[in-house]
Give the backbone structure.
Amino acid sequence: MAIRTEPFILNMGPQHPSTHGVLRLRVTLDGEVVTDVELVMGYLHRGIEKLGENRTYAQIIPLTDRLDYVASMTNNFAYVLAVEKLAGIEVPERAEYLRIIMAEMMRIANHLMAVGFFLNDLGAMMTPVLYMWREREKLLDLFEMVCGQRLTYNYMRIGGVSHDIPEEFLPALKRFVAEMPGFIDEYDRLLSQNEVLLARTKGVGILPKDTAINTAASGPVLRASDVKWDIRRADPYSIYDRFDFEIPVGTVGDCYDRYWVRMQEMRQSVRILEQAIAQLPEGEACAKVPQLLRPPVGEVYGHIEAPKGELGFHLVSDNSIAPYRFHIRAPTLINMTALKDMAIGWKVADLIIILGSIDVCLGEIDR
Amino acid sequence: MTKALNGEEVAKKIAKKFPGSIAAADKAAVVVTSKSLYQVAEFLKNTRTLDFDYLTNLTAVDYTDYFEVVYHLISLRHNHSVVLKARCYDRDKPAVPSVVSLWRAADFQEREAYDLMGIIFEGHPNLKRLLLWEGFVGHPLRRDYL
Amino acid sequence: MTLLEQFQLWLGSIWPGWAAYIVPAIVGIVVVLGFVLTMVIVFIWYERRLLGRFQVRLGPNRLGPEGIFQPIATAVKILLKEDIVPTKSDKVIHWLAPVIVFVPVLMIFAVVPFGERAILTDLNVGVVYVVAISSISAVGIYMAGWASNNKYGLISALRAVAQMVSYELPVVLAILGVVLMAGSLSMTQIVASQKIPFLLLQPLGFVIFFLGTVAEMNRSPFDLLEADSEIVAGYHIEYSGMKFAMFYLGEYGHALAYSCIIATLFLSGWQGPLLPPIIWLVIKVMAVFFVIVWMRSTLPRLRVDQLMAFAWKGLLPMAIINLFIVAAEVLWLSEITPWLMVAVNFVFAGVLVLLWSKLFTLGGGRVEV
Amino acid sequence: MKFERYGIGIAKGMAVTFKHLFRAPITVQYPEEKLIVSRRIRGNELVWYPDKCTGCATCAKSCPQGNIEIATHVGDKNNYVVDKFEVDTGRCMFCGLCVEACPFDALAMGISYERAQHRRKQLVLSKEELQLSDVRQPSGYARPRIEASLPKQSLLIYWDKEEGGQKLSWLGLSKKRGRGV
């Protein structure tokens, strides 16, 4: 006998503990099974693209901090790289290394937070989050040391970085680099073989390889689907071609793979940090760049491998002090395209962890 | 290193297949007529030597007398890239064909361009505002929006 | 004869019959309630501090020495909050639900032995009473989820019913093993018969009972009813003020009650050398609760279908087999030394757990829609 | 045979959390214990030196928010006299661009961080309020000379071992702990 049932529409968010901000998911449920997901966003829209059109090139840097507020440093990095590409500015050697160090520290900090909150979505009662935040705090301390703030760094400048590092920075960072693998091992022991975690994440929310490419997923989401595409390798920006690191890839593209890829990337970032510290040259930290930069007429698309995926800035210059058009390719917005594919047929609880495994940041999605 | 293909050469290939579809071409980008955009995109995606399977970025620029829709395409296999552009001169109803059926990555990005720039992507399955709310008047990223 | 009955007898010689019955009963209830509510307060503090230490932080430490008065401050805060009733809720049921959740929890303590004769009523069907009473709160949870007219609450309510019904069976079957060994349904008899704690005699039964009760009191990793990351707070999402306090107390009261019962059934209750019985019971209860908090701090939550599978495919068959094993042992092995039984049961437990773990696939579970 | 699903992973995880029970908590009990902030902290509000300021308004131009209001008139020594220097710290995002831009070091970021107010109006700081005082000390952001004079930042990374093995009561409170480099 067929029982006539009605679909059940659940508005998850904008106030919901697991949507990582003010995202709203209009979920159609059949019992607990998700049959449709519609994303409603824009609750955090601040019009940064429009704001950028009437700020000078240097004044936009603090705005980029507010995109992905979990990984501000890489946002700065992507933006200044794009501007330098547009204006053809050479960056001093030391500044390049400092940028790489900051970017990789940021990647570790971001992945710590991503994995921690992924576990929190799984219901692990804050414990992994707090363990990981302990390490993230150490990194934030270091960021605070170099640029005076813990979240919105505004550290990179067009042509270099705003300050050289203080002398107590490198010993502290060396110590962090020495200790971090031990902590990652501990997280591994705590999580990677945990049967409950495996049961919840293995095979859940599979993003097949061709869908991942077709939806232009990027970052750990793409690599978890067995696509070896990392812009640090594929299109080396800055001086990434000088470092030796591996690109971890997943096998099937489920939530566990995305988790696993992030854990491995932390290890690789530690490796890059080790090399960068060893090679760090002396010299200037910033090139001489006019305060009111007027890049030549033209347009440029600069992209980097931000912790969450490919972060791109599309800048159009009309030789004035402000960009004519300032477009941000936000990685998580585009990674979310495939959310519907991943989530349909799974339970509400899975929808939450799939969202968590994409590692969304609403500051970036809504801009 | 991702190799940026020379726009002129790509334009030649396209012109051979679809005569009259190229509006302009320089080293950096290929500008196609908006009418032939879909065919060209399909050609770029499905030709073996080009194989642009990854639509990185889609955006629109308002040059006051026309809108330019910019597509940044990458081929993951060959690791090369090209910039494809289409212009639309109608300020009230600028329209280009949607490429969602080729690259689903365009889904949100086209909606965003529609939302903020007011470009209508014909054939998009769900062309609604993305960031702003339904009923918002105007398209804020246009240069004449104050 | 329990202390209470003795008191009643003694009073009966000087007072009229009805007064001699009621007054000691009230005195007993007040004493037990006092103990329970104090313990609940202590439990709240204990869990917070313990969870804090598991998570390398401190936990509440401001109010009183080591933060011991923090739960009281919490209680005051909750009680002072506005009582919000959703407009479209079912008012009567919404009002009644917290009571139905809270009262059965207190009723369980009627049969918990706190000492050799210190028990409120020594029911000869004590175990059955516990099983019957403790499952009533499922009704309360369902009422709360249904009446608040909230979709999260509804999901939670439906999960509650499924979960409670599923886990009741293995729990009862695990208790049956204990009953077989003790040869009695009375809680005092069960404690008295534990020369060796049943934890050693029935390791598998203990594991099944423990997991089952953790699921019944909705604690991690089985806290699907509250699942703060999915359905926010589940059934008590629309509750505030005093009603929420009832749920809150009910939750910890449940934890206390089940810890008491686990201590009684498997850890030889109040028995122990040197210290007075009540201290022993508290120590054992705290130890049980420690493990519960420890699990809570470590494990992620299961999904609803995995939870059901775990009950029906895992715990239930194991509990049945365990019951048969215990029955056979009681029939044929009880003459010989009990330590042989301990060895045999540990071997059986290991083999069964290994065999059953083969059944479970890790991950997957997509439904075609 | 892989030892998945037998509970080994759970046991390992439980062991990790159990180990943490005996580690020193990382909590800093804020109002009593305060960390030393970075020497370059971009703390709340600005410090303005009226004697150094020439009224050139470079800071105002460099502010992304257009948040610095500056009004001058020409004084008798053919200099600018600053009539008004007003900053709305409620709109300030503490990016530090104004401090970096100032050619005369007349502006510095503040080092303090407890500056909540009850009214939005109180967040608008005038010329008099912005000057150096006991509660308004400059930080070393983009000011190397001030930076050298400030105490070293306390870092969490040095807190695990060198302070090391901190003898704590089981509850981790009784002993007052120092923290820092």
